[in-house]
Amino acid sequence: MELTLVNLQKRFDRVESDDFSPFSVSIAVILHGFSPRVSISSTQLSDDIAKRFGFNNILQLMQYFQDDNIDSTQEVSIRFIESISDMPLQSFQTNEELFDLEEFHSSIYDMLKLIDQQLAETAVEAERSRLYKSVSLRFLSKILGGHTLSNFETFSHPIFQLFVLTTQDDCQSIGALYTQWKGTKVPFWVDLKEINPLCIIIVDLSIETDFQQGLWLRDSLKNKFGLSSLILSLNPNDKTKNLNETTIKRSVFAFSSHPEIMIIPKTLQEDIHGFYKHLTTKVVFPFMEKKVNEWHENLIVPRKSFSNRFWKGSKRSIETFSEQERQQGIDENGFNAVQGYYHHKSQEFKIRRLADWYFMMRDYKKSYTTYDLLKKDFLKDRSWTYLASLQDFMIFSLLIGASSKQASVPNEGNGNTVGITNKIINDLILPTIENLHYTYLSRCSLRTNTLRSCILMSELFISMGEAFMNELYLVQSIKLLRKLLSMKILQGSALAVIYQHISFAYTIYSRPLNHQEVSRPSDKLRIKNIDMEKLGLTRHRKASLWLLLAIKIIDPFQRPAYTKGLEQSIIKNLVQLMIEKGIDVDSNWRHVELCWLFRNGSLILNS
Amino acid sequence: MSLYLALIGTRDNPLYEMEIKMDPIRDFCPFIVHSALDIIEDLQWKTNQLYFKNIDNYDNYSISGYVTPGNIKFMILYQNLRSDEAIRQFFGELNDLYVKTLLSPFYTINEAIRSKAFDQKVRMLSRKYFNL
């Protein structure tokens, strides 16, 4: 499952130029991780077109374009996945882990190995810094890169099903593809009817009559199967390696089996990019918006109605379940207590899906209130996985909602809280997190969900802490990461990455002085005392300790280039501390304050 | 029971170190204690007290500290020690020992304490209060 993150290169460039840290852009990765999924089935002829450009199939080709808007928190995006009809049967198990933890560990090991090699090969400081910064983003993309279908959250459920075909395909083969997809045996917690089918007809621009043929095919698909279609105009014969070719990079969420970069004609890149944009902004999101409004009217308004407050009967499902469904253990509310899932016809499933769609559409206020509506029902049914996941996304909604205010609120510093106050953290966020982690781990043994929850929340807290210069958020982030360590879910290199996360949070920790500093003209003859009031405002020593622990795990003998950089960061941290204390630092850094690091037998010298 | 004690000068420099049964994390003891200086420096301006109980932790180890009026820090990293009161009394007596060292005309502040007598007395104190 190894996933890599090459497409973030341009974002790293931005990180460099604008003095951003990886945590400022991590929100964009998180948002992209929860983008609407679009599944793809393609005919043999359309796959042949993809093969002409070096891709295995149309799905792989499309996946190279799915990160196009990842560098922006404003722009919406979608993610392409394989069709439900092509998914292996184990994807349909209930209460399944998000990804294989063993594979995850080995992929992190490989990632550090790769970065170590790259660091050894480059001496350019900007490039080295970029590689170090990429670690946390690669780690994040691996956490969000799981492809498992989940029964208790609907982010992994596709919203659109694309059937990609060419003008050479006949209606019968499309019909067979469509029928096969429609007849896929899916569990009761997947709602196949709500996946919107859409045909994509690839038209060859080099053939004059092909566009007409495409239009004709579009009409006949509409008439025969009632399927809507979009035309994708390409020039598949333009594969000449000339000046007009361009490089596209592998998606952050793609499989490692995909080549890291692909060289394709510029016209193809422009055509597919335009198509991707059209599909996202003109098809998927307007469809979601329409659906969400409809569901809100049908599901939320009756629940919140005046009569419902007196007559609780209307709250629950009025859907009737067939005899066969009853035999599967589904009760009158649509909940199967034995296997622990809600039927897709149940109100709980529908409302959860509505909340998830709000979340994907980045309306965090509505997603929070919609999640909140379900809490009591899940508690009553003792559907623990659903409850934990619900609480998880309630907190995500709260934090992402606050984080996305970053752009609108100027960076004032001095403890700006953007609505997430200490009281909200202590009374709402922390008890909920405690509760949901207990449920994930002890009741449901879902280690990857716990991992994702801890990492994402800590990322969001770090991001907020950094943006608003508020140490309150950084402290929460560190607590979450240390809690994750105490759960002993991670090991090896992944543990080292967490140590580096903690170190980063300590590095940016900085409490403002309580009073305004009076600036005086510098006087070299004046006795310079340590400024006592500045002591204890930062956590540079702590940051150094956690880097040292990371070095111990990564092993300086195995990854010399990587650990050397971490050692330099330790020294920089302590030198920064000295500067803050008002101590003049000379170039060789052999100060008494650093003697812990340089004395005989110390770990730094040993390594 | 295990313990690592460090007396730390005003410039973060170690003045004296003693370690008893800290094998699993021996290499890291100085750094763990050093990192706890961030916390103690933060706390020392908020209160008049000299003893800071359980200010930080690492795995199953806890850290307590004592700040002298001259801003010298006594830090211990420990596991399964008897009681907080014992630690407080230990620090009190250690402070007496340190003040006596300060009074020596051959000792300058912030200098490493290499006196064998001092070391023996500190070890006696740890036996007295922690049975170590």
TrEMBL record, chain A:
- What Pfam families does the database record attribute to this sequence? TRAPPC-Trs85 (PF12739)
Q: Which domain of life is it from?
A: Eukaryota
Q: Quick one: a GO cellular component term?
A: TRAPPIII protein complex
Q: Which InterPro entries does this one have?
A: TRAPP_III_complex_Trs85 (IPR024420)
Name used for this protein in its record: Subunit of TRAPP (Transport protein particle)
UniProtKB/TrEMBL annotation, chain B:
**SUPFAM superfamilies, from UniProt?**
SNARE-like
Signal peptide (residue range): none
Instruction: Fetch the InterPro entries from UniProt.
Output: Longin-like_dom_sf, Sedlin
One of the record's GO cellular component terms = TRAPPII protein complex
Alphabetical GO biological process terms: endoplasmic reticulum to Golgi vesicle-mediated transport; protein-containing complex assembly
- Know the name of this protein? One of 10 subunits of the transport protein particle (TRAPP) complex of the cis-Golgi which mediates
Q: Which organism is it from?
A: Komagataella phaffii (strain GS115 / ATCC 20864) (Yeast)
